[in-house]
Structures
1.
Amino acid sequence: MKQNSTQKKLFFMSSLRIRSFLCSAMLLLLLLSAGNVFAQNITVKGRVTHDNGQPVQRPSVMVKGTSNGVTGDDNGNYSLSAPANATLVISAVDFTTQEIKVNNQATLNVTLVVLDKSMGEVVVVGYGSVRRKDVTGAISSVSEQALREVPVANLQQALIGRAAGLEIQAVGNRPGAGAQIRIRGNRSISGSNEPLFVVDGIPYDGNLNDINPDEVASIDILKDASATAIYGSRGANGVILISTKKGRNGETRISYNGYVGIGTPAFKYPVFNSQEYQAMRNLSTFNGGYMAEEQVGITQGRNTDWQELMYENSIRTDHNINVSGGNGGNTFSLGGGYYKETALMPGEEYTRYTLRSTIDSRIGKKIRVGLSTQNTVSIELGSQFVSGNAMFRTVVLSPLMPPYNPDGSIYIMPNGNVDDNNGDGRYSPLLLKEGKQTWVDKVRRLRTFNTLYGEYEFIKGLRYRFNLGLNYAQQNGGQFKGSDQPPNNPSFFRPAAGNTARIDNGDTWGYTAENLLFYDRTIAGKHKIGFTGLYSVQETQSYNSYVQKDSITEDFVQFYNMGAASPTPVAATAGGESRSGLISYMGRINYSFMDRYLLTFTYRRDGSSRLAPGHQWFNYPAVSAGWVISDESFMKNIKQVSSLKLRAGWGKTSNQSIDPYQSKGLVNNNNGLGSSGTIGAAGSFIRYNYGPTIVNGYNVVTLPNPDLSWEFTNTVNIGLDFGLFKGRVTGSMEYYNSKTDKILYAVNLPVTSGVAGAFQTNVGEMENKGFEFSVSSVNYQSKSGFNWSTDLNFFFNKNKLLKLSNNVTQDVGSQLFVGYPMTAIYDYVNAGIWQNSEAAEALALGAMPGQIKLLDIGGPNKTPPDGVVNDNDRRIIGDMDADFQGGITNRFSYKGFDLSAVIHARLGGLLVSSLHAPLASYLTILNGVRNSLKVDYWTPTNPSNWFPMPQAQVATITDGAKTLAYYDASFVRLRSVNLGYTFSKDLLKRFGTQNLRLYFSIDNVALLYSPYYDKTGIDPQATAAGDRGVGGNLGNIRENGRGNGALVIGLGTPPRRTFTFGLNLSL
Amino acid sequence: MPGCKKVLEEKPYTVFSVDYFKTPSGFQNGVNAVYSGMRFLFGPEGAASMATSGTDEWAMGDQARAGAAGDLTSFCNYTLDNTGGSILTPWNRSFNNINLANFLVEFAPDIAIPDADKKVALGEVRFLRALYYLNLVQYFGAVPLDLGAGDLKPNTTPYQGFNRLPTGEVFVKNYQAIIDDLVFATLNLPDKRPAGAFKLSKAAAFHLLAKAYIHRAYSTAAVSSDFANAYTAATEVINNPAKYGVALQTYYADVHKPNNDYNSEILFSIERIPGNYAADEVPNPDGIGGTKGMDVSNDFCGNYTAVRAPLNTSATVPVVNRTVQYGRPIRRWCPTPWLYNTAFADKFNDSRFEGSFRTAYIASATGGGYTSGVDTGFVMALTDRIADSLNGIAPVGPRLKPYRVVAPREFYFVSGSLNGNQDATSNMYPSLSKYEDPSKGVPNYPGGRPFPVCKLGETYLLAAEAALGSGNAAAAMTLINVLKQRAVNRPGLSPGELTARYDAIKLTAPGQVTLDFILDERTRELCGESMRWGDLAVRNKLISRVQLYNSDASANIRANKHELRPIPKEQLDRIIDPDKQKYQNPGY
């Protein structure tokens, strides 16, 4: 049967699946449902209160053993329909769960006790949710409150330092900048190590910037394989489950959350002042002499601070309105958001508009349907080319040069040498701030992410659910650089050239169709059995196209009409496509005995199009168990311990580390020259010409490998959850050991194999072992209303590469070393600078005082030192993994006031500062051509042990200067301080207001500890995986296209410190 | 379920497999790629660095001397190790194209194209494969013929070995393969190339075959008939110019003149299109090196934007703006004193110095008495005497020219030292003009003109050298004198002047022809054309001539090491064998 449209095909397939599930449902019915009693439903109403009499806001009231339930309102009132003989389960965050029999009563008021909050929470797990008490895997949860404490652009930033085992490193300070996320370390060399994101049950592979943090109700992080195995081939890197806000039963509410923040530079790049600049230049190899205007500057004692002139205050503002309500199981929520952020450098801006809605509806007693839709439009300005070049100029311009002419106009070529006046970055960056803007750099993205479900309850405890997720994203990038018309209209980005325009369009769509069957039953009051079954199909396709054209007729056309241009040079074009499909079966059985002994089995089977036929299907089993020790009779007398649970689990997962079509081998027309250029990026395709006739060329890029498979991770996890002192202290500890095998390893073949591209093969093994600890405590609680509580988490992860391919213990070309972490750095040993007193020792190695002291460690084949510094002297000198990481949040409250402070720490490991690798950044080259980042360099009278003397050869071996890039990466950062005041309910009632909180917060408050900062004056936060700004790949760190590249510190918009005023209001 | 099967099928639109080369269009696109790969080896800075740095012709320009150009210094002064970036240019850019050539040769019998076309395509592929190998062998000695699937077989396995041992044996096989491929090319390529394009032809194949025989003749793989075979191949072209459609240009200066790229003296060039960076495979023309562009159009350029005029104390810099014609003064290589003073001692009778170098610059900024695009800004005088006379220094008198006349003693390094009025001339020296590209659009961008690889002028030199090697110095003298005769031609000279000038430079006795003389003459004819280092190395003349003529390099260069470049570290890192050193060339 030929399918005409995807929709039709979907419907056809899903109806088939419904039928097959009906069959299995019947079987289950026969097996398990004998003797079910149906009772008459009545309406039960009531109020849930605190043991101190205050209402419990929004309690959850469920009919026991079903998914039938409601959420009460802010005053604790609830109403639901339940069988007259049912038991209600009443729960709320921070309270003990109560069970109460209906016994035909229409009003049931319930009092909840604040006790052990960790055990009562509902935790979202894959394909469902469970009580915290019933969890058997390693799961961390981050509450809505915690997410609010740091005003941020995106979820990644909100999660930094907030959960044990979750390592998030922000990358760059661009508006809307992203972050690198790792759960329990790296386990893939060439595949992605990013976790799977699941939004409201549907896997989400879009840009996280498209999710408005204000729409998120909670985040649950599945860390171990027993929890993630139900995501099978995508579970290995952990899973982050995001639940968005839903409507609740009760009167319709409107709420507003918003803030406005102003940012200032948290620091400026330290550069030489004009005195220091002259000292460096006079000592350097540069012999071009000072420019005439610099001579004037010397006479006048000029000292231009270019950064001071360039930076402007940044703005960050966020506004969200949400309306929600519902009754009788029909609930809705509508919301809209607006977020805008600018950077310190002019021209960079990020704006996001969001619109969302959820509807959940009950049709009769057995059917529930719902829809949730999230729509985002974001616009990034200046993200593609603005900051790199402008930042470089801002840092390296001569401080002797004037920013302005005497008449107040911009001095347009303030370079300290003739060459730069002819160069590509010749103009003053002030043109970006104050001049006529002749460029456009804009990326606009539209994403719509929709989930639709229908649920049918056959009989009590047996439900079928169909989920459909539809995702579409479109991204349009436009660039325009106007033509240069000096002196009146110089073009900062196109000196001495005509204009150029570029557009690229990317388009991704996908669907997920899931058929789920749930069965829950309690046998003899003690045996609880739950079953979840899944059959799902998922497909994704994306493609992009790209056009670049020079010589647009008029600058005002920008990129809006590439046809309005001269026919030559011809436009450069490119494009690409990729599609993948995944089919899955999954079953999960939960069993508990007396709520005390818990067992979970899961089994998933995934088939993927990315693998070669015959190798597409793999199985993912997992098992885990829990023992609630505190329920045992022998614990009853230990009053201090309010809860104690031991968990253990094992599971197998993998990651989808193979790109579509990768197993096929590759012949293409790519010449390997990259496409990052500003003009003629189409120069990255193999072409040739015979006279005027231009032709295409194709070459072999990679070898086919039909045996490619996923990388499999086996994890053992042991965890202990505890609650002490009536739940005032709660926490958990986890130990895990995961081993990943069949790691895809891109063997960099010697080029003499005749294939330029690396060869992907499953050969490696890697290990991650670690320990995690998190605790929440109420430290102080006074009658007067003063409260102090603390959330603390810390963890460490030891990553070790166990095996590459056979007998290969190191692959220097790929920077991989068996027995060491994946981020190991292999280089010469830099012992500082050769001092005058060491002249003889230096000379023996061909060096002289003032050069980098590279140690002669050995000769060929591990023989003793041989008197030369060469390849044989390279060693593992460290790695980039942190030894210890954690976060601590302290919260204080007194009456209406609340104060919180969030601290994030990352200790140990090396960072790579490409800023300080002279030939990578040109920022510390000290050759006198331009100004430099301030470094303490050696001179005969200044025995610095850090930077070498400015000279032609700073080391006896060409790439020895790279060793200047390594520093201790440790830091402790006070990320934010947040002070709020909540107005009293009584006061608000008079204004018809439910809740009003005003707050003030400061982010990026202080670096409490950072050896790198102490030495260089630069923030230790990474700016890129390689090349933003001027930092290129140093060749000494690993890099790949899947975000596994080492994070490096290059040049970028400096970090901001933002002062934010905000309010939360609900009516 | 049938629908599900489809979900798991891959049907890529944009990804091809090796089978693509079995289709007629795929086969042709493979041939195109083998041609295109040559762009890496002729024109980019890495390739030029390998061929130019540390020779008797070229010393360090100030940008190489200051180390700003990365590893260039180490190539120029022989402190290079196996990490230097330039060695990767030929190393990394050759073997994948050789393997592709192997595929095409292997698949050719089954390709559905006419036999005549197939013959030509195979001739092209095998010529180019030979050129890749010839280039590699001159730098590295033995290199693998067996990439993992047998000698000259297409490799489809992830091979992590390195088949260059024993080097002596492999080296012999290398030359034999080169010669076999070129002999095939001489039999199968068309006689002539098209008028306005550089498709390969028999003339180029004979030329390169002669060169390959000559290279082998000096090597440990030498066969006694090499010089004789070289002579036969080279003279085949020289003696049948009509058949092969070749002829020397009347004026030497025309050979490399812009807009004359397809002249009859050039047998084969690696092609590009000026100003078309998409066609030329230059993704980022703002950058220096690393792509397939003609960096050589800037690499030899002195710092003309800093020369003050009319006096070295004047405030005016008349050529302060870079021009498209003169290019970006990247200042990698400047002439050695030997090149300027000895090889080109006679710049008057022999037109080849002025045909190769730019010595006059037109103002590019208006001011100080100069009009942009009209007035001469400065000239580089041929001798100190001329400069002193025009400047009114000796004999003392008024300045005879309104522009600056820079004396050779003021040139950067040409006088053998770096100090002579350096601020005044600020790193200026006569700049190689052969690759100037007035059509490239932006001064800083790499050029886009075809890069000549086989010129008929060189065919004469190869024939002469082969004659000398075969003991026939008289024939060598005759051939050399053809070039001398042409070298005196300048527009507007009378027959009498031409005769007088020819008499001044021609060879008069066969004994004058020696290998060193041949090398001197190659400089005059081929200076800066990315072949000098190999020319010296394969003729076992590198060490002695560099020690004599290049003071930048003489201190560090040593015998039994620097005759070959090191095998790149990256290569050794990537092979499985833990004993890397045995694959390395001696001394590294």
Note: Chain A touches chain B through 107 residues (CB under 8 Å).
2.
Amino acid sequence: MTDQNQADRPEPPATSLATSRRGFLTAAAALSGPLLVSPRLAFGAEANSRLTVGLVGCGGRGTWIADLFQKHGGYQFVAAADYFQDRADAFGAKAQVSAERRYSGLQGYARLLQTDVDAVVIESPPFFHPRQAADAVDAGKHVYLAKPTAVDLPGCRTVEESARKATETKRAFLVDFQTRTDPFYREAVKRSQYGDIGRIVCGEAVYVCGPTWGDQAKWLTEKPNDPELRLRAWGLDRALSGDVITEQNIHALDVATWVLDAAPLSAVGTGGRGGRKAGSCWDHFSVVYAFPQEVTVSFSSKQLGDGADDISCKMYGTDGTFDSHYFGEVAIRGKLPYKGGKIPNLYTDGAIANIAAFHEAILRGDFTNPTVGPSVRSNLTTILGRTAAYRGSRVTWDEMMAANEALPADLSGLRS
Amino acid sequence: MGRAARAALAPAVAALTMALAPALTQPPSPPVSVNSLGMRMVLVPAGRFGMGSPAGAPMRQEEEWPHQVTLTKPFRISATEVTQGQWRALMPGRVGSPAGDDLPVVSLGWMEAVEFCRKLSEREKSVYRLPTEAEWEYACRANAQDPAATAGLDAVAWYADDSDGMAHAVGTKKPNAWGLLDMLGNVAEWTADVYAAYPHEAEQTDPAGPASGTSRVVRGGSFRSFPPALRCAARTGTPESYQLAHLGFRVVQQE
């Protein structure tokens, strides 16, 4: 009888990046395999202690998700940073963060990283994500990062490199996408990848919603030249947010790249901002992507008006249809159907699942950081579509990668 | 090269590939017997292995809960998926489309695969059956680094990226360390087990799945599948009655 324990052996790695875009950027995990270390190594304190955490970005989503972290029970917020002192103070008071550990200004996060927190939760505007995440990894912190990972190519590459470094230095790095935690999504994607809808020929990704940014348009209209108001109204700033397609619509496109397990080869696009006066972001995009194996995915989005609210992705195969709705049902229809089900509250439940997974990864010493590769891939997919739409012409993936175009933000007038 | 020519060369290609495989990276090939249908039956030793995927493994699905499995008895497993020619020798009626003696038989329900095994058992005076899910994964892993990891998926599997959307003659890709072909890709394969979550027992001996249920475990991925489905640990379930153009089977002979 042979006796061979394969439980600690990595599964086959994704196909090489050099030959295929499938499994894009999963090389760190694939090459290293599951880097499991003892919980004591992973977590300097006793295994049953709570992780100390710093919140970077104390705005709406930051304070909302911090509440979920606290409800988990395995975290304790001991530091906070936001450009705006009032926001750092408001969160700090609520979370019982001492006054001397509430930091503000553009470099406030850097001062937070000098503390002894175990982990940081980065919920700042997307423009800041790559630098803040990279500095956090350099400071030896575990990183929980909101999507999108970055607004441009250099940012995506920085995040990719930071994740590799996190794996090497035994730190967790999780990108918070909700859909990938949901059992219905996971099963439907798995079955589609297995071949249950036949040969996938084409698909649709749609993100339609109303105005999202509350009073931000009003602020910008009243004081268009106030740099701090521009920062507060980051959701309407093209460079700070990455524009609608990257900042929000990434949820729909992430599902498409997930099902196809591939990045697109090229895109043609258009769009505009006919219903929006304030800020620099567009309010709608229309993009047609060409994926490997001659799969076409049409994408459309709008962030205006009323009466339509859906984040969906459909994939059409020769034998069936993958049909997913972030706020509704996920199912496969056709010759080999999957009933799936209605998702109760993915926005919250997905974050709760990721918060738990982040904690478990740190305690288990699992630093393979599997969420990063797919997240960067879908991030780049949005940037490809955005670039094609801005240019109004066809752009290939290879052209985009070679150009390595940055999307610089205007930070003049802001204090460090 | 046309399909017919490729099919005709398939056994020779497989044999040559096995003969040239680096001796240092593979254990000695286990004994092979050939039955009256021309099926090459590879002896698989009893053994213990890690089933499922450890946390953090690339493309891991949550249901691939890692556990240790001991298989107490050796068995023989067909080196390739059952072909249309082998099927036609025992069973009347349809074998799938397109037709070709060396193409895998597809579009058959689970009960039909079981009936084929029964008739084969009668003919051979030996017990043939579908592999259990554990036997299938053990055979796929072959106590070696997964061939997809060392040789690359294109070398070992017909799948979405290289199949042109169709099944191919069996045995035209590289074998695994035990000489088994098309364990990943070409057509997905019925197993004996009812599809359900793994029992959360860290050590299991000769597991055979739940006693009842209507969906059966399907393994291996197919010519339609993407890489996440083409892993030894990847599993899915399909209702017994479904007859699918990408779903066939291979057989086990009890020792």
Note: The CA atoms of residues 145 and 406 of chain A lie 20 Å apart.
